[in-house]
Input
Amino acid sequence: MSLLAKSRLLIPDFSNWFSLPKPIYSLDAFAQINERYKQAICLTFDDGPDPVYTPKILSLLADYNAKATFFVMGAAAEQHPELVEQIVKDGHAIGNHTYAHHHPWMINTALAKSEVARTSTILERITGTVPRWFRPPFGRLRGVMRKQAYLEKMETVLWNHSIIDWGPLGTHAGITQRLDKIKTGDIVLMHDGKREHNHPDIILQCLPVFLRSLHDKSLVTATLDEFSQIK
Output
């Protein structure tokens, strides 16, 4: 590949941006939230399902009757369909996080579309329903991926509160501090997949204290599916 061709892959595709719905960053996007969800937060987990950490996170959520939305990778879902089934069985929501987690700006148009469409097909085959939510890898928006998600009747969801449970900042102290700052209306980004620099092991250590604090903070957890009818 020529240097010029490589440089073009680094430029985000802004085509169709202005004709597509805006991405969802927080629960404020759901204007007519009823009283049940006035104090809601949305916990989300990316990059799974992971055979080591996803079952432990599901067990922990069940202990505190907390609900979450899992943005799963198609390749991982193919390898561990039983975990996708368990996520749904436990009352959580499923979202599309592409097949192989390529950086959206570093792949060609055909592959970018396929990353979305292929994962939707896999998730429908496993769960019996098409996913309603799409989250691009690294939160990097690309027009062709957003359009593919839109054509498949998915909404693009990012986040407004990252726990930064990855890399050198993903320490026990840092994660605990950021969990403590979660407030009403937040869509919270965490990871159940261990890929690359994620720290789901530390998330598992920190989550129990946070989940125990929800009642005292008058916060409730809800899945994105619970808001799909009121947007």
User: Anything to note?
Assistant: The first helix runs from residue 3 to 9. Residues 1-9 have pLDDT under 50 and may be disordered. The CA atoms of residues 20 and 147 lie 7 Å apart.
